């Protein structure tokens, strides 16, 4: 049996995918991504809702933003964060689905 591989993925693409997975490999960052699945939120709202410090949330959001997992927009004095696009939401949902499947949950 021979394998036919599609064209090799470009190095820059693999580097970016690595950065996405690195950014998603932290428990609190995943909590923030899960929280933002339900809609946009300010640092203060995330801090209060997830019972984290503001400096921790800001640090985690910076990492998520650098990996293009979340985006921000200014509304008055506040920065509002949201999931960058549906690809990230789908990736997150697929990982949750895979995890529950492996544990025999439905």
Give a quick summary of the entry.
The protein is an alpha+beta fold and 106 residues long.
Explain what you see.
The protein is of the alpha+beta class and 106 residues long. It has one domain: Arc Repressor Mutant, subunit A. Helix content is 58%, strand content 13%. It has five helices and three strands, in the order H-H-E-H-H-E-E-H. A three-stranded antiparallel beta sheet has the order 1-3-2. The longest helix has 17 residues.
For the largest beta-sheet, the strand count, sense and barrel status come to: 3 strands, antiparallel
Number of domains: 1
Instruction: Provide the CATH superfamily.
Output: Winged helix-like DNA-binding domain superfamily/Winged helix DNA-binding domain
Reported by name, the CATH topology is Arc Repressor Mutant, subunit A
**Can you list the strand order of the major beta sheet?**
1-3-2
Strand and helix layout:
Layout: H1 11-23, H2 27-36, E1 41-42, H3 43-50, H4 54-66, E2 70-75, E3 78-83, H5 86-102
Antiparallel strand pairs: 1-3, 2-3
Helix pairs in contact: 3-4
Question: Could you name the key traits of this structure?
Answer:
single chain; 106 residues; alpha+beta; Arc Repressor Mutant, subunit A; 3-stranded antiparallel β-sheet; globular
């Amino acid at each position: 049996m021979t394998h036919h591989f599609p064209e090799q993925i470009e190095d820059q693409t693999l580097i970016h995918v690595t950065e996405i997975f690195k950014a998603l490999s932290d428990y609190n960052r995943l909590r923030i991504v899960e929280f933002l699945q339900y809609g946009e939120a300010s640092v203060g709202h995330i801090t209060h809702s997830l019972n984290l410090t503001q400096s921790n949330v800001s640090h985690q959001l910076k990492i998520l933003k650098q990996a293009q997992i979340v985006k921000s927009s200014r509304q008055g004095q506040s920065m509002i964060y949201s999931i960058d696009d549906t690809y990230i939401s789908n990736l997150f949902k697929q990982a949750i689905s895979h995890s529950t499947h492996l544990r025999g949950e439905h």
